[in-house]
Amino acid sequence: MELFTNQVLAGIATGAIYACMALAVVMIYQAIDHLNFAQGEMAMFSTFISWQLMQWGVSYWAAFVITLAFSFVAGIAIERILFKPLAKAPVLTNVAGFIALFAIINSSAGLIWDFTIKQYPTPFGSAPFLGSQLISTHQAGMIGVTVLLLLGLYFFFQYTRIGLAMRAAASVPESARLVGINTSWMIALGWGMATAIGSIAGMLIAPVVFLEPNMMGGVLIYGFAAAVLGGLSSPFGAVVGGFLVGVFENLAGTYIPGVGNELKLPIALALIISVLVVKPAGLFGRQIVKRV
Amino acid sequence: MSAAEEVVAEGHQAVEAVPKRAMTLGTGTSLVVLAALLIVPMFVKNFIIFQMTMLLIYGLAVLALNILTGGSGQFSLGQSAFYAVGAYTSAVLMEHGNINYALTIPISATVCFGFGYLFGKPALRLSGVYLALATFALATAMPQLLKLNFLEHWTGGVQGLVVTKPDAPFGLPMSQDTWLYYFTLIVTVAIYLLSVNLLRSRSGRAFMAIRDNEIAASSMGVNVALYKTLAFGVSAAVTGVAGSLGAIAVQFVAPDSYTITLAISLFLGMVVGGVGWLPGSFVGAAFIIFVPNMAESISKGLSGAVFGVLLFLVIYLVPHGARQIAILGQQFAGKLKKN
After folding, report:
1. Is the ipTM reported for this complex over the cut 0.90?
2. N or C: which end of chain B has fewer CB within 10 A?
3. Do A97 and B315 lie within an 8 Å CB cutoff?
4. Sequence spans of domains, chain A
5. Which residue of chain B comes nearest to A105, CA vs CA?
6. Which PANTHER family match (chain A) (predicted)?
């Protein structure tokens, strides 16, 4: 029983990473209706920016805020320059664009900062949390930040005018335009916010997985899986999905014989797919009703 | 440009909505390309022949994805898994069962058809990004499954298997590479013709009806579940054949040659060639084989970025892929005839 509790706790700790990433994925999905494959790379690049700032002697929190602002602007810029011209192109062409963006960012980061692994500081310290060996203060802090972020987003979307406008632009673009919402800029804003959230995720994840250009590869896959499991239309679902995936993965690694590190991912994915077969819109997602 | 865009938008909806005169132009072009494919290998070096073989093989794999996505509207990031199953079926049969390489191809097509058909069953409940995730899971699981200990006797584990390259039969005076090229060409042309006819048949129309509107299709009497799984089966079978040919051409199979990267390249090939336009598959295959090499030669450190920029250029210029160029060409030819 103790092993079980420990594994669940450890799962929640890694789950926080996935939850962060899943939240960013859902944000952009809400705004543009596609999964952005380059999301992880964008987060990685932002994290490198903050690292570089700290190398130049900027304090952690100052670097944090500057990176956040940079990511927000960069996200908007990427949408305006690269993806706005593709707005009328087929969906699959857009997906190819994301893959191209992935390649560009990954390769440039490799050239600027090379592929060696770098230490990344944590603002929360890494002592054991409340005397537990399994969960460190950093991981507890990560969970805290994720929950705060989620609350913030909830209030933003539910109780602010601009949040309402973004929701309208995403769900019924034509009607939103008719009531005077600039839908095109709402999409750009969505990109900016998603990139900023991604950068927070990156800066929280970096102390755990270490900083290098490929650090987001694995995390993004779990983030996608978590977002899909929770339901792509629900930020709350994304966070729950993130924690569930973390716990799933840990329990599968512990209790199913013959599952090493290598098979953890396929098993977690297989479980998620079985959930999806029963609930095709994810656990908390709304089923989209299509008109014939 | 606007007129062209309208045509593209129309053409995007229906594969066979191409005017009659244009078809003859299309046939003419295909014959010229086929003649070039037959003659060129007689005059070039073995390495180029090998690359042309790979072009045909990847072309087949992209074609298979095109049948699935362009035909029936189901998205897949799991094509590398079917490719791997095809490659391993051939390799294991040839090396452990001493079966002739040519015979392994129909066998791996059958095996992959079954695999794809069965995978299509649970995938029926999923669509869009959810299906993308499911197929993606398949692609990430496949290399790990091939490395499993209890399969190691057959698959060779992480090391993989070495495949012997076949000699030309009947004492034909050509090198192994040249023979393999012609063999691949025969298989490719056969599968290409079959696929074109499949999409023009009753089943092909059923695929497209499902792609355009599932509910409308089912109310017209199309058995949606059957045709969706069939599309997966056919696509997997063609990918499996490509995998078999690939294993024979490269003379080696290993789990890590069939990762998600392969599936993503095949996807890019489909987009660059034009979704739903079968001849484009080979243009797309050329893109995914040659452009990464080109990017590498432009800048070693930034090869990924150069590739990304080139890809962006292509999708800006022709968002509908090579098919858009073909349609423009047809219109131009039509104008010339009128004058």
Report:
1. no
2. C
3. yes
4. 2-278
5. B305
6. ABC TRANSPORTER PERMEASE PROTEIN (PTHR11795:SF451), BRANCHED-CHAIN AMINO ACID TRANSPORT SYSTEM PERMEASE PROTEIN LIVH (PTHR11795)
